[in-house]
Amino acid sequence: MSRAKKIAVLPGDGIGPEIIDEAVKVLRQVEKVFGLSFEFQFAMVGGGAIDRAGTPLPQETLELCKKSDAVLLGAVGGPEWDENPPELRPEKALLALRKELGLFSNLRPVVLYEGMEKSSTLRPEVIAGVDLIVVRELTGGIYFGEKTRQKAEGGEEVATDLLIYYEHEIERIVRLAFQIARGRKKRVTSVDKANVLESSRLWRTVANRVAREFPDVEVEHMLVDNCAMQMVRRPADFDVIVTENMFGDILSDEAAILTGSIGMLPSASLGEGSFGLYEPVHGSAPDIAGQGVANPSATILSAAMMLRHSFGYEEAAGAIENAVKHVLSRGYRTPDLATHGQMAVSTEEFGDRVVEEL
Ligand code: ATP
Ligand code: MG
Predict the structure, then answer these.
(1) pLDDT exceeding 70 applies to what percent of the chain?
(2) Is the ipTM, as predicted for this complex, more than 0.90?
(3) Residue 7: phi, psi to the nearest 5?
(4) 69 tagged catalytic
(5) pTM of the predicted model, to two decimals?
(6) Residue 242: closest CA among 303, 293, 157, 172
(7) Which residue blocks in the chain are alpha helix, DSSP H?
(8) Is the CB of residue 288 below 6 angstroms from any atom belonging to ligand 1?
(9) Residue 225 catalytic?
(10) Ligand 1 atom nearest to CA at 335
(11) Strand partners, 241
């Protein structure tokens, strides 16, 4: 057996601890079934950390993450901390973690599982077969470029945000997208606004250069406005979508509605090498916290992404995904997904079913 993989577990606030419990339970089962070994170390993050340590990201938590092989995070935030000053907001911990850990990519797979067509607000025939992944650049672009705000002549205010990308920033995210495509349907859609933006023209040049390293992967370029439209018109045609920070922010939220429930969507944030941070797309859901009704699927599926991307345990990752799929197809649903005739189960029971399935 190889060295135990060190996993930093940050449950956070709201439903965070409840859904993390289920993901850890599933990982413990994976250890048994696949003969793997994980070392879990828990730490504070978010609102709870503000209350107990005076900061959303305590130094010990950051250090634990840095010496771990991967981070599994629940969710942070809640109404208790909404009025806090910016540096004492729970969400600050997420931005600080991404930056400190050099996580320049965000991966959001969007998969419509069998029998879930009715959960979406879109027509079943439109979303049938949706299985795509949005690869978003996370540490560059307009979010991080220089910002100015000043009085212009005549007294009105003027503000600017610089959209800046270096070749190396584009290259590493596009290469990651192509590598991911190789394990999927081998199709990359690179999204930009090259008819208007110079940074997009550079993006396209670099994307074409990287594409030459992957002759087995098909590449198409799409303008972001068109992509936004195609995503709700023929979403099943997409495989891997790669794009810059702001376009990715918008498109990944748009993609999220294709499957209907936010409780189903996992994510991974990756940097150089195998290290990564894994968390559900949803937030801390304070409205249902402590009731044992949260859907743990997004967190369990995030754990599967961790096995795949950080540890290379593809078989175990696929087994978790299949287990969730089977539990759902047998009709077990947490209340967010349960419709007439289906068994509404608790967070814990859903986790138990996934363990059983494994
Ligand atoms: P954040 O700003 O942290 O993203 P938010 O208020 O925008 O938080 P969520 O915390 O994701 O959003 O909650 C949005 C809605 O989705 C809430 O009604 C919440 O109860 C529901 N929700 C979120 N996650 C889950 C889950 N895992 N299971 C069931 N319902 C969920
Ligand atoms: Mg939100």
Answers:
(1) 99
(2) yes
(3) -115, 120
(4) no
(5) 0.91
(6) 172
(7) 16-34, 47-53, 59-66, 92-100, 124-127, 167-182, 198-211, 224-233, 245-256, 297-309, 314-329, 347-357
(8) yes
(9) yes
(10) 29
(11) 134, 189
